[in-house]
Amino acid sequence: MLAERYRALHALLDRSLEMLQQAKKEHWAEVIQTGAQRQRLIEVFFEQPVAPGETDEVALVLRKILQANEEIEALAVNSRGGVSANIGSIQQGRRALLAYAENTGPDYGTAPSGQ
Questions:
Q1: Contacting residues for 87 by C-beta, under 8 A, at least 6 apart
Q2: pLDDT tens readout for residues 42-80
Q3: Among candidates 18, 108, 114, which has minimal Cα distance to 68?
Q4: Do the Cβ atoms of 58 and 108 come closer than 8 Å?
Q5: What is the DSSP string of the chain?
């Protein structure tokens, strides 16, 4: 995997982990804003097809991102602030990631349990 692609892929994971930390603090506006930034990074990353040598790393990172999304969704549902209306944008990001994961090869598009 080229260094630039590797950095771009891990920037997606970093944004997801940042969103999770924001959700734990119930900073929902920041979660949504960071999610929008992450969505743009996803779109840019997947403009170029995933090369055969990248599939394992891409699949690993996508699984970690999907796991973070599940945690964010659970926090949003259980939030005292009643932010369930904002869950839609988080779920949209999850659907996009699943679609990209399905195109990385066999077994990489498999969603974690509960999907």
A1: 73, 76, 77
A2: 999 999 999 999 999 999 999 999 999 999 999 988 886
A3: 18
A4: yes
A5: --HHHHHHHHHHHHHHHHHHHHHHTT-HHHHHHHHHHHHHHHHHHTTSPPPGGGHHHHHHHHHHHHHHHHHHHHHHHT-TT--GGGHHHHHHHHHHHHHHHHTS-TTTSPPPTT-
As given in the structure block, the two tokens for residue 33 are 């804003």
Q: What is the pTM of this model?
A: 0.71
Residue that the structure tokens 């996508």 belong to: 62
What pLDDT does residue 84 have? Answer: 55
Cα dihedral sign, 91-55-114-26: negative
